[in-house]
């Protein structure tokens, strides 16, 4: 029994936090806006009488005890942080979908063997602090807590300090017994296939670098083309060679997302560019090839323009495949709601990528209109959103009864 | 009789205005720092007893009357504004060189037939407000004053408002009878040739555009390469095609100097880039070809990535050749100081480019170490700076005696 109105109203209310007209919403991890979203969620959890837990990296859990207590809860969730000018669904949908399921279970008085939990993981997006999926990485033991807390944003602020400032540096320890993540697809595949639910079989590998090219700022009028050390020309050539790389490696993608050109004046040859590289592939051998080739391409473009290169690996999330029993469970739950089901891999990273190393994990996708995400135009029809929550409810209840 | 110590001290003092350690100095046109430099220069002019004039666009003149009065002064100068993180010499050298000559004439009691003037033209660099050479453009009648005053910076502030705010919106009218501009070369040709003085025969054409590519921000992981509308990929391809254009058109240059990528997040395909294009060539037919091809290349790269294009022409300064009698005069003045003289065209734009349309005009160059300018590393040896001022003194006195 899902309170659909309440769920949709919650989604809208949370979507208003950090919003600006025409610019979507921006809730960078551990910003004031993220803090506001966290406090909002805590109030919702309290209203439901959930037991609230916060761990060392600020992952937030609301637990509904089962007949056997609160240990190893069957967990669902996602994240509250967003990219810059984001849609209302990425992350928020999975958290509020889980909350809606727990609310339904609670309010209907359904008794379950195992505890249920809703989770909001810290810094999934990785826009402000790298690596992304930071909260789930720490929870899974694949990133030391101290290292995560020491991550700095571009102003030099540390994740740990920001967590303290917001009052979300906890001491609890929660270990999910199983994990289901409900998410919008963020890509075009469900829509292309006319499918209503995606059974996510795995997540592709993601590697990130933060880089700087240093050349020589000089006069745009007096400096002959063959004597320039134009840092922007270096990044432009890199853009082309990364796109060629993505064309060579099957089903891979490559993106230059942040590019800051200095000094940034109309008549000055750029002397410095700070930029990021994002490459992804599903097949482990393809992902390995990308990780091997990017540093070479970075050096090649630098060499061609006599630039100095600094490059730091910022994230390296391996491709994962969820266990067969979990994807089969999601598949059968999905088929309880629709027969338009597609099995696919996720192009985006998700906390499930690291929960996978901790407990049986799977994901449920709903379609994204036009395949758009990480932009204000991100949208999914309410009917699809609600269908996804019903699939999640089936999955959580099945797992909690085992 | 040149007070060398005083001249070098002035250069250092002016160079301190807007300076930051390790970052050169930034005195964007009509900023507070530009205002401070203007007030500093006014004090120097007053100390010398010059008659101070400020015209409608804020060009600043200090006049030393001749036997025939103050009309049509033989003028020398340049500009006080700078690019971002500039050297101490671009512009300042020409203003202070002229000031040093007027000081020498004044203090030695030399009597000249015609008046002399030192001039500091408004917004030569064009980094904050376009077009560049704004003050000399207005003075020459090639840009209506009202249009110049209405130019807006990227925050939407108008040049006219800023001029009022600084108290440099004047009502005087000064019409130079001849113009000599002393400047660092800003390029490598004098140094390459081992020459100490450059006789500038002309200035190459300069065309600027301010552009926007709009695509679609989207998720870096889920958006297949062939379905992206990546605004940065568009600018990267444009960078390559502009460099190919510069290679096709003899002795031309092309630069992408300002490039702002949005939203600028590591895992978001860029949905928008704002950027500038600067192309230059000396031969009129080459300059014409550049101006014809750039809009086509802008459209081509946009088309390849399904981007919307907005492009606005921001500056269009034609190539000029100074009159033979003026370059011959500079040549003979130069040979009074050294036999290592090179005739060359200027790669940078200068106020002389538009004074040329008003009165007999020429320029004197001194070498730039490593050909560097528009960067903190800009440097010229004191001996070269002083030699340039002596050549300027010979030229101004010869013209003022005619
Ligand atoms: N779901 C999602 O957008 N995650 C952010 C991490 C990434 O894939 O870039
Ligand atoms: N001299 C100088 O740097 N002028 C600025 C205008 C330009 O050439 O870009």
Automatic annotation (TrEMBL), chains A, B:
Protein name, entry field: Amidase, hydantoinase/carbamoylase family
Q: Which family does it belong to?
A: Belongs to the peptidase M20 family.
Root EC class = hydrolase
Pfam families to which the protein is assigned, alphabetical = M20_dimer, Peptidase_M20
Give the molecular function GO annotations.
Answer: hydrolase activity, acting on carbon-nitrogen (but not peptide) bonds, in linear amidines; metal ion binding; N-carbamoyl-L-amino-acid hydrolase activity
The alphabetical list of record keywords is:
Hydrolase, Metal-binding, Zinc
User: Which cofactors?
Assistant: Zn(2+)
